[in-house]
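I have been asked to look over a protein record a colleague put together. What it holds is a sequence and that sequence's fold in C-alpha coordinate form. Please read both lines and tell me whether the C-alpha coordinates look consistent with the sequence. I do not need a full report, just your reasoning and any doubts. This is what I was given:
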Amino acid sequence: MRLALVLQFAIVAAALTAVGLRIDTGYVQLSYHGYTAELTLVSFGALLLAGMALLYAVLRSVVWLVRLPARMRRLYRRRRRLRARRNLTRGLIDLAEGRWNESEKRLERSAKDGDMPLIHYLGAARAAQLQSAHERRDQYLREAYECTPQATVAVLLTQAELQIAHHQHEQAQATLRRLQEIKPGHAYGLKLLARLEASLEDWDRVEALLPQLRKSPLMRPETVEDLETRVLRERLQAASRPGGGDELKALWRNFPRRLRYRPELVRLMAQALLDAGDHDAAESLIRDRLKVEWDEELARLYGLAASDNTGKQLARVEQWLEDHGDSAGLLLSAGRLCARNELWGKARAYFQSSLNIAPRSETYAELGKLFARTDRPRLAMEAFRQGLEFSLTGRSDRQALRALDQSAKQERKAAG
Protein backbone atom coordinates (compact mmCIF):
# COMPACT_ATOMS: atom_id res chain seq x y z
CA MET A 1 0.00 0.00 0.00
CA ARG A 2 2.77 2.38 0.95
CA LEU A 3 4.78 1.52 -2.18
CA ALA A 4 1.75 2.23 -4.39
CA LEU A 5 1.31 5.67 -2.83
CA VAL A 6 5.01 6.47 -3.35
CA LEU A 7 4.81 5.41 -7.00
CA GLN A 8 1.69 7.50 -7.55
CA PHE A 9 3.38 10.50 -5.96
CA ALA A 10 6.47 10.02 -8.19
CA ILE A 11 4.38 9.75 -11.34
CA VAL A 12 2.44 12.91 -10.49
CA ALA A 13 5.68 14.79 -9.69
CA ALA A 14 7.31 13.63 -12.95
CA ALA A 15 4.27 14.65 -14.92
CA LEU A 16 4.21 18.13 -13.35
CA THR A 17 7.96 18.52 -13.94
CA ALA A 18 7.63 17.53 -17.61
CA VAL A 19 4.81 20.03 -18.12
CA GLY A 20 6.87 22.74 -16.45
CA LEU A 21 9.96 22.02 -18.57
CA ARG A 22 7.99 22.23 -21.80
CA ILE A 23 6.99 25.71 -20.87
CA ASP A 24 10.53 26.73 -19.79
CA THR A 25 13.62 24.44 -19.72
CA GLY A 26 15.26 26.69 -17.16
CA TYR A 27 18.80 27.92 -16.80
CA VAL A 28 21.43 27.30 -14.12
CA GLN A 29 24.81 29.07 -13.89
CA LEU A 30 27.56 27.92 -11.49
CA SER A 31 30.59 30.13 -10.82
CA TYR A 32 33.68 29.34 -8.67
CA HIS A 33 37.01 31.24 -8.62
CA GLY A 34 36.55 32.60 -12.10
CA TYR A 35 35.22 29.39 -13.60
CA THR A 36 31.68 29.46 -14.90
CA ALA A 37 29.42 26.59 -15.92
CA GLU A 38 26.05 26.99 -17.56
CA LEU A 39 23.55 24.17 -17.42
CA THR A 40 19.96 23.64 -18.24
CA LEU A 41 17.75 22.89 -15.33
CA VAL A 42 17.31 19.30 -16.55
CA SER A 43 21.06 18.72 -16.78
CA PHE A 44 21.59 20.25 -13.35
CA GLY A 45 18.88 18.05 -11.88
CA ALA A 46 20.39 14.94 -13.47
CA LEU A 47 23.84 15.88 -12.21
CA LEU A 48 22.49 16.53 -8.72
CA LEU A 49 20.72 13.18 -8.63
CA ALA A 50 23.85 11.39 -9.82
CA GLY A 51 25.90 13.09 -7.12
CA MET A 52 23.41 12.16 -4.44
CA ALA A 53 23.38 8.54 -5.66
CA LEU A 54 27.18 8.44 -5.56
CA LEU A 55 27.25 9.94 -2.06
CA TYR A 56 24.65 7.42 -0.90
CA ALA A 57 26.70 4.56 -2.35
CA VAL A 58 29.85 5.80 -0.65
CA LEU A 59 28.09 6.20 2.71
CA ARG A 60 26.53 2.72 2.47
CA SER A 61 29.93 1.24 1.67
CA VAL A 62 31.46 2.97 4.68
CA VAL A 63 28.67 1.79 6.94
CA TRP A 64 28.99 -1.77 5.59
CA LEU A 65 32.74 -1.75 6.21
CA VAL A 66 32.27 -0.37 9.73
CA ARG A 67 29.69 -3.05 10.55
CA LEU A 68 31.59 -5.87 8.90
CA PRO A 69 33.55 -6.97 12.04
CA ALA A 70 30.38 -7.16 14.14
CA ARG A 71 28.62 -9.04 11.34
CA MET A 72 31.51 -11.48 11.10
CA ARG A 73 31.46 -11.98 14.90
CA ARG A 74 27.74 -12.74 14.81
CA LEU A 75 28.26 -15.19 11.97
CA TYR A 76 31.10 -16.85 13.86
CA ARG A 77 29.01 -17.08 17.03
CA ARG A 78 26.12 -18.55 15.09
CA ARG A 79 28.38 -21.21 13.64
CA ARG A 80 29.81 -21.98 17.09
CA ARG A 81 26.32 -22.27 18.55
CA LEU A 82 25.29 -24.68 15.81
CA ARG A 83 28.43 -26.72 16.45
CA ALA A 84 27.71 -26.65 20.22
CA ARG A 85 24.18 -27.94 19.64
CA ARG A 86 25.52 -30.79 17.54
CA ASN A 87 28.13 -31.57 20.21
CA LEU A 88 25.45 -31.52 22.93
CA THR A 89 23.33 -34.03 21.05
CA ARG A 90 26.33 -36.20 20.20
CA GLY A 91 27.71 -35.94 23.74
CA LEU A 92 24.44 -37.05 25.34
CA ILE A 93 24.24 -39.97 22.93
CA ASP A 94 27.83 -40.95 23.83
CA LEU A 95 26.96 -40.70 27.53
CA ALA A 96 23.96 -43.00 27.10
CA GLU A 97 25.94 -45.47 25.00
CA GLY A 98 28.86 -45.71 27.43
CA ARG A 99 31.48 -43.65 25.58
CA TRP A 100 32.10 -41.51 28.61
CA ASN A 101 35.47 -40.06 27.68
CA GLU A 102 34.24 -38.87 24.27
CA SER A 103 31.05 -37.55 25.87
CA GLU A 104 32.95 -35.55 28.47
CA LYS A 105 35.23 -33.98 25.86
CA ARG A 106 32.40 -33.03 23.52
CA LEU A 107 30.24 -31.55 26.26
CA GLU A 108 33.05 -29.64 27.98
CA ARG A 109 34.57 -28.30 24.74
CA SER A 110 31.32 -26.74 23.52
CA ALA A 111 29.79 -25.67 26.85
CA LYS A 112 30.70 -21.98 26.63
CA ASP A 113 29.42 -21.68 23.05
CA GLY A 114 26.10 -23.44 23.62
CA ASP A 115 22.68 -22.00 24.35
CA MET A 116 22.40 -24.26 27.43
CA PRO A 117 25.81 -24.45 29.12
CA LEU A 118 24.16 -25.86 32.26
CA ILE A 119 23.16 -29.04 30.39
CA HIS A 120 26.68 -29.35 28.96
CA TYR A 121 28.35 -29.11 32.37
CA LEU A 122 25.90 -31.43 34.13
CA GLY A 123 26.34 -34.03 31.39
CA ALA A 124 30.12 -33.67 31.55
CA ALA A 125 29.97 -34.10 35.34
CA ARG A 126 28.07 -37.38 34.95
CA ALA A 127 30.54 -38.59 32.33
CA ALA A 128 33.46 -37.73 34.63
CA GLN A 129 31.73 -39.51 37.54
CA LEU A 130 31.41 -42.67 35.46
CA GLN A 131 35.17 -42.53 34.88
CA SER A 132 35.83 -42.03 38.64
CA ALA A 133 37.28 -38.59 37.87
CA HIS A 134 35.81 -36.88 40.91
CA GLU A 135 37.91 -33.74 40.78
CA ARG A 136 36.83 -33.06 37.19
CA ARG A 137 33.25 -33.87 38.16
CA ASP A 138 33.29 -31.29 40.96
CA GLN A 139 34.91 -28.72 38.65
CA TYR A 140 32.14 -29.16 36.07
CA LEU A 141 29.53 -28.76 38.80
CA ARG A 142 31.16 -25.52 39.96
CA GLU A 143 31.16 -24.23 36.40
CA ALA A 144 27.50 -25.23 36.03
CA TYR A 145 26.65 -23.14 39.08
CA GLU A 146 28.73 -20.18 37.90
CA CYS A 147 27.19 -20.12 34.44
CA THR A 148 23.61 -20.49 35.73
CA PRO A 149 23.32 -19.34 39.38
CA GLN A 150 19.53 -19.64 39.26
CA ALA A 151 19.92 -23.41 38.74
CA THR A 152 21.51 -23.96 42.17
CA VAL A 153 18.92 -26.58 43.17
CA ALA A 154 19.46 -28.62 40.00
CA VAL A 155 23.23 -28.50 40.46
CA LEU A 156 23.05 -29.54 44.12
CA LEU A 157 20.68 -32.43 43.36
CA THR A 158 22.95 -33.69 40.61
CA GLN A 159 25.97 -33.36 42.89
CA ALA A 160 24.23 -35.28 45.68
CA GLU A 161 23.13 -38.08 43.33
CA LEU A 162 26.65 -38.48 41.99
CA GLN A 163 28.17 -38.43 45.48
CA ILE A 164 25.71 -41.07 46.69
CA ALA A 165 26.45 -43.22 43.65
CA HIS A 166 30.16 -43.12 44.54
CA HIS A 167 29.49 -43.79 48.25
CA GLN A 168 30.67 -40.31 49.29
CA HIS A 169 28.02 -40.28 51.98
CA GLU A 170 29.36 -37.51 54.18
CA GLN A 171 29.76 -35.16 51.20
CA ALA A 172 26.26 -36.09 49.99
CA GLN A 173 24.84 -35.33 53.44
CA ALA A 174 26.45 -31.90 53.39
CA THR A 175 25.17 -31.22 49.87
CA LEU A 176 21.59 -32.25 50.67
CA ARG A 177 21.54 -30.27 53.91
CA ARG A 178 22.72 -27.21 52.03
CA LEU A 179 19.91 -27.81 49.55
CA GLN A 180 17.39 -27.87 52.41
CA GLU A 181 18.82 -24.59 53.69
CA ILE A 182 18.43 -22.98 50.27
CA LYS A 183 15.03 -24.51 49.50
CA PRO A 184 13.45 -25.96 52.67
CA GLY A 185 11.14 -28.89 52.12
CA HIS A 186 12.29 -29.60 48.55
CA ALA A 187 10.50 -32.90 47.91
CA TYR A 188 13.10 -34.83 45.95
CA GLY A 189 16.00 -33.49 48.01
CA LEU A 190 14.15 -34.52 51.17
CA LYS A 191 13.57 -38.00 49.78
CA LEU A 192 17.25 -38.41 48.93
CA LEU A 193 18.31 -37.14 52.35
CA ALA A 194 15.94 -39.50 54.20
CA ARG A 195 17.13 -42.46 52.13
CA LEU A 196 20.76 -41.53 52.78
CA GLU A 197 20.30 -41.04 56.53
CA ALA A 198 18.49 -44.38 56.76
CA SER A 199 21.28 -46.17 54.89
CA LEU A 200 23.77 -44.65 57.36
CA GLU A 201 21.46 -45.66 60.24
CA ASP A 202 21.42 -42.11 61.58
CA TRP A 203 17.99 -42.60 63.10
CA ASP A 204 17.98 -39.32 65.04
CA ARG A 205 18.16 -37.39 61.78
CA VAL A 206 15.60 -39.66 60.13
CA GLU A 207 13.24 -39.04 63.02
CA ALA A 208 13.75 -35.28 62.65
CA LEU A 209 12.79 -35.53 58.96
CA LEU A 210 9.59 -37.53 59.52
CA PRO A 211 7.20 -34.53 59.88
CA GLN A 212 8.38 -33.15 56.53
CA LEU A 213 8.35 -36.56 54.88
CA ARG A 214 4.68 -37.06 55.79
CA LYS A 215 3.83 -33.89 53.85
CA SER A 216 6.04 -34.69 50.85
CA PRO A 217 4.15 -35.52 47.64
CA LEU A 218 6.99 -37.84 46.55
CA MET A 219 6.85 -40.07 49.63
CA ARG A 220 4.24 -42.81 49.75
CA PRO A 221 2.54 -43.13 53.16
CA GLU A 222 3.65 -46.75 53.54
CA THR A 223 7.27 -45.76 52.86
CA VAL A 224 7.15 -43.07 55.55
CA GLU A 225 5.52 -45.56 57.92
CA ASP A 226 8.29 -48.09 57.27
CA LEU A 227 10.90 -45.44 58.08
CA GLU A 228 9.03 -44.53 61.24
CA THR A 229 8.88 -48.21 62.19
CA ARG A 230 12.64 -48.56 61.72
CA VAL A 231 13.21 -45.51 63.92
CA LEU A 232 11.00 -46.96 66.65
CA ARG A 233 12.70 -50.34 66.35
CA GLU A 234 16.05 -48.68 66.96
CA ARG A 235 14.59 -46.84 69.96
CA LEU A 236 13.37 -50.12 71.43
CA GLN A 237 16.67 -51.87 70.88
CA ALA A 238 18.55 -48.99 72.47
CA ALA A 239 16.32 -49.15 75.56
CA SER A 240 16.42 -52.96 75.76
CA ARG A 241 18.64 -53.59 78.75
CA PRO A 242 18.25 -55.06 82.25
CA GLY A 243 16.12 -52.82 84.39
CA GLY A 244 14.90 -50.75 81.45
CA GLY A 245 11.27 -51.85 81.70
CA ASP A 246 9.88 -48.48 82.76
CA GLU A 247 11.70 -46.68 79.96
CA LEU A 248 10.43 -49.21 77.45
CA LYS A 249 6.83 -48.85 78.61
CA ALA A 250 7.05 -45.07 78.49
CA LEU A 251 8.49 -45.29 74.99
CA TRP A 252 5.74 -47.68 73.92
CA ARG A 253 3.01 -45.35 75.21
CA ASN A 254 4.45 -42.56 73.05
CA PHE A 255 4.36 -44.68 69.91
CA PRO A 256 1.68 -43.67 67.37
CA ARG A 257 -1.34 -45.85 68.02
CA ARG A 258 -1.44 -47.17 64.45
CA LEU A 259 2.12 -48.52 64.83
CA ARG A 260 1.53 -50.28 68.12
CA TYR A 261 -0.40 -52.90 66.17
CA ARG A 262 2.40 -53.72 63.75
CA PRO A 263 3.45 -57.32 64.47
CA GLU A 264 7.19 -56.69 64.11
CA LEU A 265 7.08 -53.89 66.68
CA VAL A 266 4.98 -55.94 69.10
CA ARG A 267 7.46 -58.81 68.83
CA LEU A 268 10.38 -56.47 69.35
CA MET A 269 8.70 -54.81 72.33
CA ALA A 270 7.92 -58.18 73.90
CA GLN A 271 11.52 -59.35 73.47
CA ALA A 272 12.81 -56.03 74.85
CA LEU A 273 10.63 -56.37 77.95
CA LEU A 274 11.90 -59.92 78.46
CA ASP A 275 15.49 -58.71 78.12
CA ALA A 276 14.74 -55.95 80.62
CA GLY A 277 13.39 -58.51 83.09
CA ASP A 278 9.82 -57.15 83.08
CA HIS A 279 8.14 -60.50 82.44
CA ASP A 280 4.70 -59.51 83.69
CA ALA A 281 4.52 -56.62 81.20
CA ALA A 282 5.77 -58.90 78.40
CA GLU A 283 3.17 -61.55 79.27
CA SER A 284 0.37 -58.97 79.30
CA LEU A 285 1.46 -57.45 75.96
CA ILE A 286 1.70 -60.85 74.23
CA ARG A 287 -1.60 -62.06 75.65
CA ASP A 288 -3.47 -58.94 74.57
CA ARG A 289 -2.01 -59.09 71.09
CA LEU A 290 -2.76 -62.79 70.57
CA LYS A 291 -6.39 -62.10 71.46
CA VAL A 292 -6.55 -59.71 68.49
CA GLU A 293 -4.42 -61.60 65.95
CA TRP A 294 -2.55 -64.87 66.11
CA ASP A 295 1.20 -64.65 65.66
CA GLU A 296 3.51 -67.67 65.74
CA GLU A 297 6.53 -65.74 67.00
CA LEU A 298 4.58 -64.15 69.85
CA ALA A 299 3.22 -67.59 70.76
CA ARG A 300 6.84 -68.79 71.02
CA LEU A 301 7.85 -65.81 73.15
CA TYR A 302 4.92 -66.32 75.53
CA GLY A 303 6.64 -69.30 77.12
CA LEU A 304 9.67 -67.14 77.98
CA ALA A 305 7.56 -64.74 80.05
CA ALA A 306 7.91 -65.99 83.64
CA SER A 307 4.95 -64.21 85.23
CA ASP A 308 3.95 -64.52 88.88
CA ASN A 309 1.24 -67.05 88.01
CA THR A 310 2.72 -69.67 85.69
CA GLY A 311 -0.16 -72.04 86.40
CA LYS A 312 -2.62 -69.56 84.94
CA GLN A 313 -0.29 -69.03 81.99
CA LEU A 314 -0.18 -72.76 81.34
CA ALA A 315 -3.97 -73.03 81.49
CA ARG A 316 -4.27 -70.21 78.97
CA VAL A 317 -1.74 -71.85 76.62
CA GLU A 318 -3.55 -75.18 76.77
CA GLN A 319 -6.78 -73.37 75.97
CA TRP A 320 -5.11 -71.76 72.93
CA LEU A 321 -3.88 -75.20 71.86
CA GLU A 322 -7.49 -76.22 71.27
CA ASP A 323 -7.55 -73.83 68.30
CA HIS A 324 -3.85 -73.80 67.42
CA GLY A 325 -2.68 -77.32 68.10
CA ASP A 326 -0.41 -77.26 65.04
CA SER A 327 1.57 -74.27 66.31
CA ALA A 328 5.15 -75.36 67.00
CA GLY A 329 5.84 -72.10 68.82
CA LEU A 330 2.83 -72.51 71.11
CA LEU A 331 3.75 -76.15 71.85
CA LEU A 332 7.25 -74.98 72.76
CA SER A 333 5.76 -72.41 75.14
CA ALA A 334 3.51 -75.07 76.65
CA GLY A 335 6.54 -77.30 77.24
CA ARG A 336 8.47 -74.46 78.88
CA LEU A 337 5.58 -73.61 81.17
CA CYS A 338 5.13 -77.28 82.12
CA ALA A 339 8.84 -77.54 82.89
CA ARG A 340 8.58 -74.40 84.99
CA ASN A 341 5.76 -76.09 86.91
CA GLU A 342 7.82 -79.33 87.07
CA LEU A 343 5.31 -81.25 84.95
CA TRP A 344 8.10 -83.22 83.28
CA GLY A 345 6.07 -85.74 81.35
CA LYS A 346 3.76 -83.14 79.81
CA ALA A 347 6.72 -80.88 79.09
CA ARG A 348 8.55 -83.66 77.22
CA ALA A 349 5.42 -84.48 75.21
CA TYR A 350 4.94 -80.86 74.21
CA PHE A 351 8.60 -80.51 73.20
CA GLN A 352 8.42 -83.68 71.12
CA SER A 353 5.22 -82.49 69.42
CA SER A 354 6.81 -79.14 68.63
CA LEU A 355 9.86 -80.85 67.11
CA ASN A 356 7.67 -83.07 64.98
CA ILE A 357 5.94 -80.00 63.48
CA ALA A 358 8.86 -77.58 63.12
CA PRO A 359 12.27 -78.45 64.61
CA ARG A 360 14.15 -75.64 66.33
CA SER A 361 17.55 -75.73 68.00
CA GLU A 362 16.05 -74.04 71.08
CA THR A 363 13.43 -76.81 71.35
CA TYR A 364 16.20 -79.42 71.34
CA ALA A 365 17.98 -77.36 74.00
CA GLU A 366 14.85 -77.25 76.18
CA LEU A 367 14.40 -80.99 75.80
CA GLY A 368 18.05 -81.56 76.69
CA LYS A 369 17.72 -79.41 79.81
CA LEU A 370 14.60 -81.32 80.80
CA PHE A 371 16.41 -84.66 80.54
CA ALA A 372 19.33 -83.24 82.50
CA ARG A 373 17.02 -82.05 85.28
CA THR A 374 15.38 -85.48 85.46
CA ASP A 375 18.72 -87.32 85.73
CA ARG A 376 18.81 -88.79 82.24
CA PRO A 377 22.24 -87.62 81.02
CA ARG A 378 22.45 -89.92 78.01
CA LEU A 379 19.19 -88.60 76.60
CA ALA A 380 20.22 -85.04 77.47
CA MET A 381 23.46 -85.46 75.52
CA GLU A 382 21.59 -86.89 72.55
CA ALA A 383 19.09 -83.99 72.56
CA PHE A 384 21.90 -81.44 72.74
CA ARG A 385 23.74 -83.25 69.93
CA GLN A 386 20.71 -83.18 67.66
CA GLY A 387 20.13 -79.51 68.46
CA LEU A 388 23.72 -78.67 67.57
CA GLU A 389 23.49 -80.63 64.34
CA PHE A 390 20.26 -78.84 63.43
CA SER A 391 21.76 -75.41 64.13
CA LEU A 392 24.72 -76.24 61.86
CA THR A 393 22.94 -77.98 59.00
CA GLY A 394 19.36 -76.73 59.28
CA ARG A 395 18.16 -80.31 58.93
CA SER A 396 16.46 -82.50 61.49
CA ASP A 397 17.13 -86.24 61.72
CA ARG A 398 13.59 -87.58 62.00
CA GLN A 399 14.80 -91.12 62.65
CA ALA A 400 17.08 -89.96 65.48
CA LEU A 401 14.19 -87.92 66.86
CA ARG A 402 11.91 -90.95 66.93
CA ALA A 403 14.67 -93.01 68.53
CA LEU A 404 15.09 -90.35 71.20
CA ASP A 405 11.36 -90.41 71.86
CA GLN A 406 11.36 -94.22 72.11
CA SER A 407 14.34 -94.15 74.49
CA ALA A 408 12.55 -91.66 76.72
CA LYS A 409 9.41 -93.82 76.81
CA GLN A 410 11.41 -96.96 77.62
CA GLU A 411 13.27 -95.21 80.44
CA ARG A 412 9.97 -93.95 81.83
CA LYS A 413 8.50 -97.47 81.75
CA ALA A 414 11.59 -98.87 83.41
CA ALA A 415 11.40 -96.27 86.12
CA GLY A 416 7.71 -97.04 86.61
